[in-house]
Every structure is written in C-alpha cells, then in structure tokens.
Amino acid sequence: MVGFLRAFAAASAVPAAAAAAAAYSLSSPSPSPSPSSSGPSTTKLRFPLPASFHSASAASSSTSGRAPNAVPPMAAAAAATADLSATDKESALPELTTEFMVDMKCEGCVTAVKNKLQTLEGIKNIEVDLPNQIVRVLGSLPVKTMLDALHQTGRDARLIGQGNPNDFLVSAAVAEFKGPVVFGVVRLAQVNMELARVEATFSGLSPGKHGWSINEFGDLTKGAESTGKVYNPPDHVSDKALGDLGTLEAGENGEANFSGSNEKLRVVDLIGRSIALYATEDRSDPGIAAAVIARSAGVGENYKKLCTCDGVTIWESS
C-alpha cells in the first residue's frame, strides 16, 4: 500500500510542474520600457510577475536547456532559412524599433493586438497609439514574424517604419522585386554605425541554393547583368566583399526567407545601388533578377491613416 501511494505522488508531481511552467511561459516578464516619443494617448505594455513565478522560471530553464528569452523554434524557423554566415544564422537579430499601421477602432482592438504580440518571445516593449493606429515594437524578431502575428488577430497591418529614432539620417532602405517571375522584398535597417539588419522574403525561385549580393550600380537595363560587381568599399579589408550576402535556399515551393545582420554595412551608402539574385550559389551566371535599393521610412517618418470604408482598405498620407 505504501509503495502504491509513493508511486501515485510521484506521478502527480509531473503535471503540476508542467502547469507551473506553462503559466510562466504565458506571463514572461518584460524589461522596463524605453521612453516613449508619442503623445499622451500612447499606452505602454507592462506585465510584472509575482515572485513565485521566478523560481518556476529557473527550474524550467535548467531542465529545458533554453534561455527564457530565446527565440522559440517556430520563430527561429521563419527567421533563418538562409544565412549570411553560420554565426548570423545561429544568433538572434539585434534589437530594433519597428512601427506598424494596424486597423484598430477601440480599446478592445488594442488589447487583442497586445495580447497576441505578448505571446512572441524576443519582444522587449510594445507601445500603442490608438488615435493614429500605430503599434511600435522594440525587439529582436523579424518583421515577417510580427506581421504574421498581427494578421492572425484578423486586422489589417502594414510595416511603416524601422530603425533607431533620431540616430541616423538614413536608417532604413528597401529593394522590391516585382516579377514577372521572381517577387520579393529586401529590407535593410541600421542598428548602429557598425551593424545593419537584413531581412528578405522571395517567391518564384527555382528550388535550391542561390547566390545574392548588393551590387555597385542600380542600372537594370540588362537586369542583374548590368548592376556591376559586388559592392565593396575601398576601406573594407576582408576576404569577403561587404556586399556579399551569401546564399539563399529556396524550398520546393520556390520561396526563401532570410533574417540576419551584417557588420560594417551602412544603409546610407547603399541607396541607388542594387540587390541581385543568381541562379547558382557561386554567382557564376549573369543573374536572374535585380532591384534598386531605395530609401525607406524610419521610425516616426511615415504616419498614415487607415480607412476601411466601403470594404476597401485605403492608405492615405497625412
């Protein structure tokens, strides 16, 4: 009888520990938010935890072998299917402020958006400006991961700015591939003077590995073939050109995603140049597609108003 009771007690401890770990994961603490640059209508997210949950956090981390703020497997898979280097693929993205325009009409919408974003690890702070329909996120997640989460709330959402406010004259740039075969977008954002984030999504590629690079010129008269050599400033001393972005790997559906960082890359120096895609990994072919790099909006530079009247979404500059 005593043996039976001991076995029963040991079995009961397992679901109890699992429940404690689940409660902690849904309520993970957020560091203190950074000062807000928005008006009085802006709300900030704060969700402190009772002290009892911190002991559960330590036990959960030690048994799972994963740091509390590590990017979860689903986010990591979406963030890194190609890489600039092995180091970039394994490390989290550097923190950056990203602004979205989100169709929100009431405080209930704000709550729904916050609750959804809270489920994503890697977000440090969330600010919501309901009158202007702005959601500002400070964190290390790729844009695609955050946009997917916002769309899952059933609301229209659009990236409108990225970077570090007031830090750089040009903090963000974009290159758009508009077909007819290859479609995609590459976003570049300055984190600091020594580091830039690079994010990309493509479709229409043949399955397998493709080389891609930032090239010297924005001349698209002959597609990628007329964009010149890989961009490499004279003061860059390395065996690898600064504009060499490595390899993209497209799946069977022709899609490829990338999220990473590139040291020494300055976004302001890339405006007017191009990003080229190649059929082969070593870029020995003339190239299959190219797009000019243009300046994109930084934080606070692209506020717009969303109108959903008559069932049509209209983005209107204010």
Automatic annotation (TrEMBL):
Residues 1-19 form the signal peptide. It is found in: Plastid, Chloroplast. GO terms for molecular function: metal ion binding. CDD domains: HMA. Its main location: plastid. InterPro entries: HMA_dom, HMA_dom_sf, SOD-like_Cu/Zn_dom_sf, SOD_Cu/Zn_/chaperone, SOD_Cu_Zn_dom. Residues 25-45 are annotated as: Disordered. The keyword Chloroplast applies. Residues 25-41 have a biased composition (Low complexity). Keywords: Chaperone, Chloroplast, Copper, Metal-binding, Plastid, Signal, Transit peptide. Residues 95-158 form the HMA domain. Pfam families: HMA (PF00403), Sod_Cu (PF00080). One of its GO terms (cellular component) is chloroplast. PROSITE patterns: HMA_2. The keyword Chaperone applies. It comes from the Eukaryota. Its cofactor is Cu(2+). In the C-terminal section; belongs to the Cu-Zn superoxide dismutase family. This is Superoxide dismutase copper chaperone.
